[in-house]
From TrEMBL:
GO terms for molecular function: ATP binding; GMP kinase activity. Keywords: ATP-binding, Kinase, Nucleotide-binding, Transferase. The keyword ATP-binding applies. Transmembrane segments: none annotated. Coiled coil: none annotated. Residues 6-185 form the Guanylate kinase-like domain. Belongs to the guanylate kinase family. This is guanylate kinase.
């Protein structure tokens, strides 16, 4: 007998909150969880591996994916590169009954909300605005201009927290990852609408 389809969990939050780090911790300690690998037109950062951290594609290839409806969602992020979620791997993981997660930006989460409203949407929040700024500056992967642009975006992203079903505060990566997996384990139950609403890379 085929397994029952899983419920998709969507993780989003402001830039530099640690979404990718938390997702990596989930991948390491919970290999049973399937995590989508996004496509992006930006260049790899030091240490990033194609197909593991992202699928790094050309603008022309991204255009093809959009035109052929190969992406579940996509967006221009920080007014620069494009990011998107390949559709087929997500559908295959859910159909196989695996716990499945997307780690994406706010724009992408809103698109998925429209197409898959039954998913569980989790907001990863920083302990404070000051800590978010410290993390962004501390990672040293952006120019001053890019940091300023990301901080403007981050304020807008933080304001979207009420749109999400649950919030996890990223005080410590392992704890946040464990909280996320606990939500995923129980996420196969039907959504309960507004009752799930809550009281981040």
């Amino acid at each position: 007998m085929s397994p029952a389809p899983s419920r998709l969990v969507v993780l989003a939050g402001p830039t530099a909150v640690g979404k990718g780090t938390v997702a990596a911790a989930v991948r390491e300690s919970h290999p049973e969880v399937w995590i989508s690998v996004s496509a992006t037109t930006r260049a790899p950062r030091p240490g990033e591996v194609d197909g593991v951290h992202y699928h790094f594609v050309s603008d022309a290839e991204f255009d093809r994916m959009v035109a052929e409806d190969d992406l579940l969602e996509w967006a221009v992020v920080h007014k620069a590169a494009r990011y998107g979620t390949p559709r087929r791997p997500v559908e295959e993981a859910l159909a196989a009954g695996r716990p499945a997660m997307l780690e994406i930006d706010l724009q992408g989460a809103r698109q998925v909300r429209r197409t898959m409203p039954e998913a569980l949407f989790v907001f990863l929040a920083p302990p404070s605005w000051e800590e978010l700024v410290r993390r962004l500056v501390g990672r040293g992967t952006e120019t001053e201009e890019e940091r300023e642009r990301r901080l403007v975006t981050a304020r807008e992203e933080l304001a979207a927290e009420p749109e999400f079903d649950k919030t996890i505060t990223n005080h410590e990566v392992r704890r946040a990852a464990d909280e996320l997996v606990e939500l995923m384990v129980g996420s196969g139950r039907p959504a309960q609408g507004p009752a799930l609403l809550s009281d981040d890379t």
